[in-house]
Amino acid sequence: MASKKAFITGITGQDGSYLTEFLLEKGYEVAGLIRRNVAGDLGNIKHLRDEIQLFYGDLQSPESVAQALYDFKPNEIYNLAAQSSPLASFKDKIGTMMITGVGAVQVFERAKDIVPEAKIYQASTSEMFGETKEVPQTEQTRMIAANPYAAAKLYAHQMASIARRDKKKPQFICCGILFNHESPRRGINFITRKVSVGVACIKNGKKDKIPLNEAGEPIVQNGKIKLGWLGFKRDWGYSKDYVEGMWLMLQADQADDYILSTNKTWTGEDLCREAFATVGIDNWQDYIETDDRFVPPVETGPLMGDYTKAKTKLGWEPKTSFPELIKMMVTSDLAKFS
Ligand code: NAP
């Protein structure tokens, strides 16, 4: 049997890199779309450069997506590219919609014309549940986006559903409604990573070359990490566990939507407590400063996902606990920022 071919948008991101490793191990030929500005530094996929094909492109350029699909002819497409930060989306509403919403639909449309048999995975998100009252959330829970990122994802999510139900030319598109998932490869502007980097820099007494936060300031200033309100609740899992779920969705006979989550919820305070505990610091509050600039104008949550459907139909389950995950991230950053 000829090897399967997977095309990944967002291949340089956290999930894209773990998914690439996972698919290569399964014997797939893997190609990805990369923006020209990252050509010099492939970041998370640097170590995979010789094993994959890369196509220059941008979700805002339908022509570049079409060309890559035409040249590579994948059987599976994983659309992971996005402006993926909810907080940043308040400052770039249009850009977020163009990439995260319209960009996804461009992928569906181009795939329909060029590789109509290809199975597509669309990266939907628990953020689409917004200010939900229902806990835990299931695939049936009402979605009311609470930030521009979630609104863009919701647009793509509903367009995927429409494409799937099209009586004339139905497409196989699965939407993974993934709850927060993290790893040592998580972007530095997301709170879990900001905390793991901050704890590592504090523990190592690092004074220079400290990575910058979203405001362009060092993550640790005067021995403290600046964060927004820590009472929010999230369901946090490990990215590497979740990419397997993405693949399982595309191996099913019918396209469908699935939640991937841990069915547990934790606060921002729990996150700080776990991260500082990894380096033996109990009085974590002394190292945190509240900064309103990192509080979203509209709060999402409480988020907690019921993954029963994925477990029953795909045999998927999360393997890594939240404390294990945070310990892994802090340990990795202690080595990186020594
Ligand atoms: P990530 O690390 O932020 O990666 C985003 C990827 O999208 C990067 O490779 C980025 O490329 C690429 N990208 C951004 N704008 C693009 C554009 N205009 N054209 C082409 N590529 C572009 O995200 P992630 O954490 O791996 O998440 C993967 C997907 O799952 C995203 O769609 C995200 O919204 C969604 N999701 C994530 C979570 C989570 O908790 N991680 C939860 C639910 C859903 P550059 O390297 O060039 O910036």
TrEMBL record:
The enzyme's E.C. designation: 4.2.1.47
Residue ranges of domain NAD(P)-binding in the record: 7-329
Keyword Lyase belongs to the record: yes
A GO BP entry: 'de novo' GDP-L-fucose biosynthetic process
Enzyme class: lyase
InterPro entries reported in the protein's UniProt record: GDP_Man_deHydtase, NAD(P)-bd_dom, NAD(P)-bd_dom_sf
Keyword flag Lyase: yes
Pfam families for this protein: GDP_Man_Dehyd
Cofactor(s) the record lists: NADP(+)
Keywords: Lyase
One example GO MF annotation: GDP-mannose 4,6-dehydratase activity
Catalytic activity: GDP-alpha-D-mannose = GDP-4-dehydro-alpha-D-rhamnose + H2O
Function in brief: Catalyzes the conversion of GDP-D-mannose to GDP-4-dehydro-6-deoxy-D-mannose.
Family indicated by similarity: Belongs to the NAD(P)-dependent epimerase/dehydratase family. GDP-mannose 4,6-dehydratase subfamily.
Record protein name field: GDP-mannose 4,6-dehydratase
UniProt source species: Candidatus Daviesbacteria bacterium RIFCSPHIGHO2_02_FULL_43_12
Lineage, uppermost ranks: Bacteria, Candidatus Daviesiibacteriota
